[in-house]
Write a structure and sequence with these properties.
Strands 1-2 form a two-stranded antiparallel ribbon. The longest helix is centred in the middle third of the chain and has 26 residues. Helix 2 runs antiparallel to helix 3. The protein has 3 helices and 2 strands; from the N terminus they run ββααα. The protein is mostly helical. It has 2 domains: 58 residues, no CATH class; 54 residues. The chain is elongated, with a radius of gyration of 18 Å.
């Protein structure tokens, strides 16, 4: 068994519905949802898609959610381009650290699907 397959206490995993981080206790079954409302929304989606060709694990987004996700991804791309430009221009370490922190924050926000 690889070390990746072993539950580690305090390890962060993402909610299967909203993408928020959940601290894994390492005891018992691995949590899939951050709260009961996310578990309920996932159940409702599975129920609505039962008997259709839509897979149970499909992510169905409203048009406004798709626009918001596209906006977050655009912001992430812009920050990555800023980092690349700063590297090419030999920016100082503090500037690079600030831009890198922004890239990480935007990537975390972009991971949220809902």
């Amino acid at each position: 068994m690889s070390t990746d397959a072993v539950n580690r206490p305090g390890r962060l995993v993402s909610c299967a519905w909203c993408g928020r981080e959940i601290a894994d206790s390492g005891v018992g079954r691995k949590r899939k949802y951050c709260q009961q409302s996310c578990r309920q929304r996932a159940y409702e989606q599975r129920t609505l898609t039962a008997g259709t060709s839509i897979p149970d694990d499909a992510v169905i987004l409203r048009p406004d959610e798709v626009r918001e996700l596209a906006d977050r991804l655009f912001e992430l791309r812009c920050a990555a381009e800023d980092l690349r430009t700063a590297l090419r221009e030999d920016a100082d370490a503090a500037t690079l650290a600030d831009i890198a922190e922004s890239v990480v924050e935007l990537a975390v926000a972009a991971e949220r699907v809902r």
